[in-house]
Design brief:
Non-ribosomal Peptide Synthetase Peptidyl Carrier Protein, Chain A, mainly alpha
Length: 197
């Protein structure tokens, strides 16, 4: 199949046919939710054996598949807009932490309808997901119950972000605008001007 560049160097006239991913981007105003390329509950014996070996295990293939799905998304896909600025900002904060800790590409866009466990997936099997969770809890100044984190395979990314925001608002000392929370307790600084002795 020819692309635009090869058309410049060929003897045939007319435009080159568009590649499938370009056609998909043009014809799809909304992006499909991400999906796992494997059924984790029904891995073959060899896949189970090599499960946590990133270079030969199923993670490498699954990660490449997820990257392909992310790359095929329309560049203007912004389904967060409909959920309001607070949720959109919360999603941006969570996504940035996941990129920093889990190695997702900077161009990755996670959407509200994506399964929540995909953005939180640590393909190395290390502690990066735990570190990301701790960073998210610190950023939102909230300690989420373990049940919340265990429910990620059953909820969407949009639901996860919304629940984080609701919990952060309910947490004592939470910032009213969803930003970093105020410190609670005595910080050692008294109010008012310093006393002169």
């Amino acid at each position: 199949m020819r692309d635009g560049a090869s058309c410049l160097h060929s003897d045939t006239l007319g435009p080159a046919p568009l590649r499938p991913n370009v056609l998909h981007k043009m014809s799809s105003p909304t992006a499909n939710p991400l999906r796992w390329g494997v059924d984790w509950n029904n891995l073959r014996p060899m896949q189970r054996l090599f499960m946590w070996l990133p270079l030969v295990g199923p993670q490498r293939r699954i990660y490449r598949d997820l990257l392909g799905q992310l790359k095929a998304r329309p560049e203007d896909a912004d389904a967060w807009k409909a959920l309001g600025p607070e949720v959109r900002d919360g999603a941006r904060r969570v996504t940035q932490i996941l990129k920093d800790y889990l190695g997702w590409p900077h161009s990755a866009v996670f959407l509200p309808q994506d399964p929540a466990d995909i953005p939180f997936w640590d393909r190395t099997g290390g502690l990066a997901a735990t570190e990301a969770i701790m960073a998210i809890e610190e950023d939102f100044a909230v300690k989420m119950p373990e049940d919340f984190w265990l429910s990620l395979p059953k909820i969407t990314f949009g639901e996860a972000v919304t629940r984080l925001l609701h919990a952060a608002k309910a947490e004592p000392g939470a910032s009213p605008n969803g930003g970093p929370a105020r410190r609670s307790g005595n910080s050692g600084v008294s109010e008012g001007p310093p006393s002169v002795s």
